[in-house]
Design a protein that fits this description.
Length: 295
């Protein structure tokens, strides 16, 4: 766990090691530092910083390109500081052209993340499972991926190329774009918002020689698939971007509704963690130990 006095593990190297191991790697999504700690405590190996959840938590709005690079990187930096796990972060479109992408990659790397995914949507972008997406030309996307690869300082920093071309141009164009992004140096490919098992099979078959992302987008366009099926298809990374966001939202709605009825949290707290349980989870025992050590 991310103790205050510790040497930070090398996130990029740790993530590369996970990529080299057999079987899919699970990446639960979080949108803040608390979520990152809880993911580590639950026994997972990687944290995924969701752009959808970051937008919802920081400004209470949908994921339609309202946050800029600095806001996203600041959130990533706080998440990295809260966990010893490698963090993979959403870098949207790179926040502009190829030059903007260079600055974005360097800022994310300085924040300590292990890797990012960068996509081919036109700014302002949208969540990959919303309607009305528009993508840039293939050459522009490939140029941006090339710039991102050139910008990284650590060769272990993972560049994931995401294409949203399935919706406007079909699955074949999405596969061709993904392959071109890999030729430009992307380490992992992410073909977003596939809509049925046949498309999943097609992408997995056409790109079987490259690590692939499966976006288990809760309630999104891609059908629910078991982990055994994901493993059978050969997808390497499985992101579950908003399970924690949806769970927290429902829990807060229910607690607030109960408090509104009762006038106090007397009944709502029955379903909540105890105060001491929560302070243990966020590291109070370490603080007490350090106070004693340095007093």
């Amino acid at each position: 766990m991310a103790d205050l006095l510790r040497s930070r593990p090398n996130g990029p190297a740790a993530f590369r090691e996970l990529l080299s191991q057999p079987g899919p790697v699970l990446l639960p999504g979080c949108y803040d530092a608390l979520g990152a700690r809880l993911i580590e405590q639950a026994g997972f190996d990687v944290v995924y910083m969701t752009g959808f959840g970051t937008t919802a938590s920081l400004i209470g709005r949908p994921d339609v390109g309202l946050l800029g690079m600095s806001e996203m990187v600041d959130n990533a930096r706080r998440i990295v500081a809260a966990t010893d796990l490698p963090v993979i972060a959403d870098a949207d479109t790179g926040y502009g052209n190829q030059i903007n992408a260079i600055r974005s990659i360097q800022a994310y790397e300085q924040a300590g993340v292990a890797g990012i995914h960068i996509e081919d949507q036109v700014l302002p972008k949208k969540c990959g499972h919303m309607e009305g997406k528009v993508v840039v030309g293939r050459d522009e996307f490939v140029g941006k991926v090339s710039a991102a690869v050139a910008a990284r300082r650590d060769p272990n920093f993972t560049i994931i190329a995401r294409t949203d071309a399935r919706a406007p141009h079909g699955v074949d164009e999405a596969v061709d774009r993904a392959r071109a992004a890999h030729d430009a140096g992307a380490d992992v490919l992410f073909v977003e918002a596939l809509q049925n098992d046949e498309e999943l099979e097609h992408v997995a078959s056409e790109l079987s020689d490259i690590p692939l992302v499966f976006n288990w987008a809760e309630g999104g366009k891609t059908p629910p698939v078991t982990i055994d099926r994901i493993n059978e298809l050969g997808f390497k990374l499985v992101i579950m971007p908003i399970s924690t966001l949806l769970a927290a939202t429902r829990a807060m709605q229910e607690a607030l509704a109960q408090i509104k009825i009762d006038g106090t949290p007397v009944n709502a707290v029955k379903n909540m963690p105890a105060f001491d349980e929560f302070t243990d989870a966020i590291g109070l025992p370490e603080i007490i130990e350090l106070e004693a050590r340095f007093s």
